[in-house]
């Protein structure tokens, strides 16, 4: 996939040709200008979505018209929505990130249908399409029984959110043009999570929620959500996430990528900035005061350290001890409270409440074990809070649905691991390991947290799986096979290589 405009954008362009001179004022410029002005006026009068549409048209559309866009640009817009807008705000019909994800799905679909050049495909694409098909099947299954109004609305919303997240995976896996653009996207992901952590640190220190100032007009807050909670007389903060648990798991997922960029950056300001991001994420994570976050962090660090040499492990271990000692002095009580969460877990009412519901969970599973009760129809407010994504998935889409989700995760992990094993560049190998660590951190949280019920964690996980597919495609796939496919289409291996914009590697390296 080349770096020319068509390849970078996946077969679509974001703006028309830019004229070098000043065009005469006539119908060619007056008509688009009039349509734009009319759209601004009309959107301002529509309720309740008018203010949000007005902001989109006035602030985003002109920028999109003058900028050159590609898949990474579309995914960057998604990151801005995921992390820049508090997850506790919604449009009513769904969260803003749902529309951003559906936009990414639309970009992928248009690019796929209009791109006639043969392109390498990672196994992530096939696994994600299978996942989308089964999600739609799981939604249809819900209507084989009598549903409440709440179940219907929640099922529709959850189905759209999951398909939108799958669209993010497809766009990342198929349409990222080169390794440099992949790094750009992942660095922006780390930057977005650093922003979330910085907001949370301010929330903890000053008991003030700055995320309310980053909400576009037209959105309203979920009455049940709060950015600052309390546990053992300490603040539990969430940043722009929907809950402190989600906040902690999110930081654990992205910390391996932050460490990767800090260790691979060139000396100077770029490395200093990268380590500052690691520090902010590391400081913010314990402020969630969450067992799920600590579990995810432990998995992520173990996986990352497994790919290091002994010297790097010793250096990191010493740095971690120093950081822990500093944090314990600077923020007293937090680490002790987290320690007590594990030591006295048997006496924690929240843990007892989860396990007491397990007999009812198995009864619900036994009623529909194969395909479940329907995607999104297990509404905690109508039934009970589960805090276990594995069990929740079985309830909603059955054992077969859980198998499809696990297969999708395994394919993503296999692509990242395959890239690590077969890539020549050590930086590529380390990036593959970091993506594996991030995905496994999310998987670990599924045992103690309803992961897919929260937007930031869900979309970050789907993005990481997509980036695993992109890394496999860009660095570890067998270029000879794709070159032969392109040559069969264009009639010349040389033309095929030039069209795709990637060198032909030998032995899959």
What is the fold's blueprint, element by element?
Layout lengths: L4 H4 L18 H19 L4 H17 L4 H14 L4 E2 L5 H19 L8 H19 L7 H27 L3 H28 L13 E2 L6 E4 L2 E4 L6 H21 L4 H16 L6 H16 L3 H21 L3 H10 L5 H8 L1 H10 L21 H34 L3 H20 L9 H22 L2 H12 L2 H8 L9
Antiparallel strand pairs: 1-2, 3-4
Helix pairs in contact: 2-3, 4-5, 4-8, 5-7, 6-7, 6-16, 7-18, 8-9, 8-10, 8-18, 9-10, 9-11, 9-17, 9-18, 11-17, 16-17, 16-18, 17-18, 19-20
Please describe the structure with a list of short key phrases separated by commas or semicolons.
single chain, 509 residues, 2% strand, two-stranded antiparallel ribbon, globular, mainly alpha
* Whole-number mean pLDDT: 80
- Radius of gyration of CA atoms, rounded to a whole number: 24 Å
In what order do the strands lie side by side in the largest sheet? Answer: 1-2
The number of E-state strands comes to 4
Strand residue percentage: under 5%
How do you describe this structure in short?
This protein is mainly alpha-helical and 509 residues long.
Description:
- With 509 residues, the chain is mostly helical.
- The protein has one domain.
- The protein is built from 20 helices and four strands.
- The protein has helices at 5-8, 27-45, 50-66, 71-84, 96-114, 123-141, 149-175, 179-206, 244-264, 269-284, 291-306, 310-330, 334-343, 349-356, 358-367, 389-422, 426-445, 455-476, 479-490, 493-500; strands at 89-90, 220-221, 228-231, 234-237.
- The chain has a two-stranded antiparallel ribbon. Strands 3-4 form a two-stranded antiparallel ribbon.
- Strand 3 (228-231) and strand 4 (234-237) form a beta hairpin.
- Helix 8 (179-206) crosses helix 9 (244-264) and helix 9 runs parallel beside helix 18.
- The longest helix has 34 residues, at 389-422.
- The relative contact order is 0.13.
